[in-house]
Amino acid sequence: MASIRSPCVRMPIASSLSFPRWTGSASIPMPPINPRDPFLRKLASVAASSHETLLQPSKNSDVPPYLDLFDTPQLMASPAQVERSVSYGEHRPRKPPPDLPSLLLHGRIVYIGMPLVPAVTELVIAELMYLQWMDPKDTIYLYINSTGTTRDDGETVGMETEGFAIYDAMMQLKNEIQTVAVGAAIGQACLLLAAGKKGKRFMMPHAKAMIQQPRVPSSGLMPASDVLIRANEVIKNRDILVKLLARHTSNSIETVAKAMRRPFYMDSTKAQEFGVIDKILWRGQENIMAEAASPEEWDRRAGIKVVEAT
């Protein structure tokens, strides 16, 4: 992994999503960013009109950073309040970050918006370590919109070890890590979503999660014996993935293994039931639930009398 020579970070991206350039000289590796990513496009539009608002702390400390930018859906739940460390802020830049990745890092957000290829893994681990260096007590937010080690069409683009590397880094950090699925969390990305702090794993209402068995990379002209070796390694990775998912979803190994026999898709509600997440980010859900009548009230209005067993 390339070393970080300075706390100042510069990560160039497409000009359509750029801020005025920073004058800092340090940089860390930055993979290409998908300009069609809905989260980044929304963030870019707000930053282009008024980046000062993004540099100020959110007025609602119960909402993960920048998620309050979305006007739809109309409902979003609030995560538990996080205690802010008094030491955080001493490394905060005094002028706008140069681009969206730096802006996200400024908000202590690590954003995975691409499949898990080596360049993405290198950047994510570097950002996690950097944020721990900035403040080992403050929360880190991991936003996920990734198809894991495969592409949308199912083609393998990365080794399963890429996801395990990020997972191990998350487990080693001193910081609390909150995870949020803002698009898709597929395969290894679903594991990262489930590996967040229990009670602090969230999902946007229309996000998708999916778990599946690892795929054997293309064997090409490999000898049959080598193909068998590679297949055995994929089976080992599958068993590891099943055990980790079972641990973080509080399901049995048999339940997870059965679900993973075929691609197992989950919407936000199903992911909550399966134990991948803890809350769906519906804005104002608490107010709506407070106004809802209790089951006893519904029974009374319907004229149903509850007879106690004798």
Features of this protein?
310 residues, alpha/beta, seven-stranded mixed beta sheet, 37% helix, globular, disordered N terminus
Q: What do you see in this structure?
A:
The chain is an alpha/beta fold and 310 residues long. It contains 10 helices and 7 strands. The protein has helices spanning 38-55, 100-106, 118-134, 160-172, 188-194, 224-249, 253-259, 268-274, 285-291, 295-301; strands at residues 109-112, 140-146, 177-186, 201-203, 208-211, 264-266, 279-280. Strands 1, 2, 3, 4, 5, 6 and 7 form a 7-stranded mixed β-sheet that branches. Helix 3 (118-134) packs parallel to helix 4 and helix 6 (224-249) packs across helix 7. It is globular and about 75 Å long. The protein starts with 37 loop residues before the first helix and ends in a 9-residue tail after the last helix. Residues 1-26 and 71-89 have low confidence and may be disordered.
